[in-house]
Amino acid sequence: MNFTENRSGYVLGVGMETVLRGNWTLKTEYRYANFGDKSLIDLGGASLNGEPSSHTFHIAANYRFGAQNGGGASFAAPAYNWTGFYAGGALGAGTAVHDLGVNLGGGTLDVNGIGSEGVFGELSAGYDYDFGTWVAGVQLDGRYSGIRSKLDILGGSIKLDSDYGFDALARVGAKVNESTLAYVIGGYSYQHFDLHASDPIGDIIDWNKSGFTVGGGLETAVSNNVTVGLEYRYSQFAKKDFSSEFGAPDGTLTDKASFQTVRIGAKYKFN
C-alpha cells in the first residue's frame, strides 16, 4: 500500500555562526519541523493517525558582502587558550530509531524504524589541551532524556523511554579563528531503556545497552573562561535479544537502537 500526502507545518531552530577569515563565516544550525497530527485511515469508529516530524542539522559557509569595504565593521575574534579542566551543561533534542526483528519460524519480519523523539538535559566534565592550531581532549557526559515512543491503543498507552545514559568521549578540533573550534568527537556510549504501559499493566521490561557515538560541532569563547557550542551526535547501540524474557528461542525477538541528537551548551574552564 502506498500513501502520498502534502502537509504544511512549522519550523523551530537554533544556530551558531562565526568568522573564518575575511568576509567568510561558518554556520551550524539545528531545525525541528512538525507537520501536524492528522488521520491517515478512517476505519469507521477508529482511525490511524500520523504526525510526521523531522530533526535536521546543517553546516554552511556564508560570504558577507561589503563587510570590509565600507559596508560595515570587519570581524575580530579575541584569542582563547583551550587548555584546562572544564564543567558544563547542555540542552538538546533528537530522535531514536528502534529496528525490530521478529523470527516467525519460516522467516524473519524486520520492522525498520519505530521512532522516538524528545528533549534531554546533559552535564559534562572534561579536559582539553591547546596545541596551537588544533585542540584535543576527553570528556564524560551524563544525561536524562525525555526521548520517547508512545502508542495509544484501546483506551490505554504503551511507552518506550530512552531515559538516562552516559558517554565517555574524545575529541579533536581545528581552530577556525582565535576563539572558535570546529571539531569531531567519538567514543563509548551507554543507554538505559524502559518499556511500560498504562495501568493495570505497568512496567513490562527495562534493559541497558552499550554502543558508540560519533559527531561534530562548533564551539566559541564568549569570555576568558566560558564557551558556548552547538553539536550533533549519532549513537548506535548493540542489539538486544528479548527471547529469554518471553520464553522463546534465541533470535525470536530483537531490537537495535540508534540515536541522532543535537545539543546547545555552555562550558566553564577552571584555569
What does this structure look like?
It is built from no helices and 14 strands. The protein has 271 residues and is mainly beta. The chain has a single domain, classed as Porin. The strands form three sheets. The chain has an eight-stranded antiparallel beta barrel. Strand 7 and strand 8 form a beta hairpin. It is globular and about 65 Å long. The termini are far apart. The model has no long low-confidence stretch (mean pLDDT 83).
Keywords:
271 residues, 3-stranded antiparallel beta sheet, mainly beta, 8-stranded antiparallel barrel, globular, Porin
Question: Helices and strands in order, then pairings?
Answer:
Layout: E1 10-21, E2 24-34, E3 38-42, E4 47-50, E5 53-63, E6 84-103, E7 108-130, E8 134-153, E9 156-177, E10 180-197, E11 203-221, E12 226-237, E13 240-241, E14 253-269
Antiparallel strand pairs: 1-2, 2-5, 3-4, 6-7, 6-14, 7-8, 8-9, 9-10, 10-11, 11-12, 12-14, 13-14
Strand tally: 14
Count of alpha and pi helical runs: 0
Helix percentage range? under 10%
The pLDDT mean sits at 83
Beta content comes to over 45%
Main β-sheet: number of strands, strand sense, barrel status?
8 strands, antiparallel, barrel
Intertermini distance: 61 Å
Shape: globular
Overall structural class, as computed from helix and strand content, comes to mainly beta
Global Rg: 22 Å
At CATH level 3, the topology is Porin
Widest sheet, order of strands: 6-7-8-9-10-11-12-14
Low-confidence stretches: none
| CATH C-level | Mainly Beta
Secondary-structure element order, N to C: EEEEEEEEEEEEEE
Return the CATH architecture. Beta Barrel
Tally of distinct domains: 1
